[in-house]
Write a structure and sequence with these properties.
The chain is α+β, with helices and mostly antiparallel strands. Helices cover 27% and strands 39% of the residues. The protein is built from five helices and five strands. InterPro entries: Ca/CaM-dep_prot_kinase-assoc, NTF2-like_dom_sf, Steroid_delta5-4_isomerase.
Length: 150
């Protein structure tokens, strides 16, 4: 039921006909690869441009919810200094009209700027993409570190 609510478009919820953008079969992987490639540029604007106008970022290494472009950019300005590289470990995908959700577990490798030591952070993630202005954008990204043990 919750997944259905997440995937319903506002137009569909109001009983209007919606025009749904096609979702290529490789979209979940391609969108993540685009995100990882944006990280590799170390340019916070390149990463921030992947987010929708009203995006929410609940980042792994920040206690501050980022709810506008300036705050999302601010997060990546600092975070990208660690040369992050993401690797998907598990993935589940749900699709709807103009909406795609990718969730699971991932490992983010970060390099300490002072020591050069690389650290792997194991985390859970949820990417919610929406089709906006002719492109797939990240409407919500939530990542949280995995508990040390269950």
């Amino acid at each position: 039921m919750l997944a259905s609510a997440l995937l319903a478009s506002p137009a569909m919820a109001q009983g209007q006909a919606a025009s749904c953008a096609p979702i290529p079969a490789d979209a979940p992987t391609a969108l993540f690869n685009q995100f990882n490639a944006a990280w590799a540029t170390k340019n916070p604007d390149t990463v921030t441009d992947l987010f929708s106008k009203d995006a929410v970022l609940l980042a792994t290494v920040s206690n501050v919810p980022r709810t506008d472009r300036a705050a999302i950019r601010d997060y990546f300005e600092a975070f990208l200094k660690g040369a992050p590289v993401g690797t998907i470990n598990t993935s589940n995908v749900r699709q709807g009209c103009n909406m795609l959700v990718k969730m699971g577990t991932w490992t983010v490798a970060l390099t300490n700027q002072n020591s050069g030591v690389r650290n792997n952070v194991k985390a859970r993630y949820t990417f919610i993409y929406k089709y906006e202005d002719g492109a797939w954008k990240i409407a919500h990204l939530h990542s949280s570190m995995m508990p040390i043990s269950e």
